[in-house]
């Protein structure tokens, strides 16, 4: 593996860690309705477990409400059951044409719990990024042992990798702070 490949792979993996954090944060319930909350809810459809958005249209008619309109009427009770079994903590309301999910105002305790989860997820993201850095530096040292690059080259590339790491850790921290602010907003 060449040095440019090591650097490129490290950057891609660090970007992947940030993308995973963004995806996880989108599924955290903030008191506002977001279709991303249903990403983890799967429905049994013709013998297969499929994501909710593959069997229904999900819209946000009001800031604290989701409307799920199944493409097949027979899916309505199945979707309703799946929501009740999920960890959302919201009771679905079947209004005949679709299912409505009304999101209540979050309590202060629940907000604080969610902030703790955000902090934990942010730290996991930082750890992932630092692991990528360690892995890239190990690859560089292996190249040095094979006499493909010099010790000075390794130091220069380590500096580049560290700058990359600092950049992505700053992004992770920013994501965490934005999500925390969003959660604490009443």
List the helices and strands and how they pair.
Blueprint (H helix, E strand, L loop, with lengths): L2 H24 L15 E4 L2 E4 L4 E7 L2 E6 L5 H10 L7 E2 L4 E4 L5 H38 L5 H34 L2
Helix pairs in contact: 1-3, 1-4, 3-4
As for the CATH topology of the largest domain, it is Topoisomerase I, Chain A, domain 4
The residue ranges in which pLDDT falls below 50 over 5 or more consecutive positions are none
Structural class: alpha+beta
Amount of beta strand: 5-15%
Q: What is the average per-residue confidence, as pLDDT, rounded to a whole number? A: 88
Number of separate strands: 6
**Overall body shape:** elongated
CATH architecture of the largest domain: Orthogonal Bundle
Order of helices and strands: HEEEEHEEHH
CATH top level label of the largest domain: Mainly Alpha
How would you name the oligomeric state of the polypeptide chains in this document?
single chain
Cα separation of the termini: 51 Å
Helical residue percent band:
55-70%
- Order of strands, main sheet, comes to 3-4-6-5
Domain Ribosome recycling factor: 22-184
Coiled coil: 133-167
Function: Responsible for the release of ribosomes from messenger RNA at the termination of protein biosynthesis. May increase the efficiency of translation by recycling ribosomes from one round of translation to another.
Protein name: Ribosome-recycling factor
Question: What labels describe this entry?
Answer:
Topoisomerase I, Chain A, domain 4; Ribosome-recycling factor; alpha+beta; 2 domains; Gyrase A, domain 2; 15% strand; two-stranded antiparallel sheet; single chain; 186 residues
């Amino acid at each position: 593996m060449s040095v440019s490949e090591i650097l490129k792979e490290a950057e891609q993996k660090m970007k992947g860690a940030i993308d995973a954090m963004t995806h996880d944060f989108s599924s955290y319930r903030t008191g506002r309705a977001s279709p991303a909350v249903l990403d983890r809810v799967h429905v049994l459809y013709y013998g297969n477990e499929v994501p909710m958005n593959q069997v229904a249209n999900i819209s946000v008619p009001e800031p604290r409400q989701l409307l799920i309109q199944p493409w097949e009427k027979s899916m309505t009770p199945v979707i309703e059951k799946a929501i009740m079994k999920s960890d959302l903590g919201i009771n679905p309301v079947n209004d005949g044409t679709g299912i409505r999910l009304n999101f209540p105002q979050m309590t202060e305790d629940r907000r604080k719990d969610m902030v703790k989860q955000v902090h934990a997820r942010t730290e996991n993201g930082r750890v992932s990024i630092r692991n990528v850095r360690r892995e890239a530096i190990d690859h560089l040292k292996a190249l040095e042992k094979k006499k493909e690059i010099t010790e000075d080259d390794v130091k220069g590339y380590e500096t580049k990798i560290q700058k990359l790491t600092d950049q992505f850790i700053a992004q992770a921290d920013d994501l965490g702070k934005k999500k925390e602010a969003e959660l604490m907003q009443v």
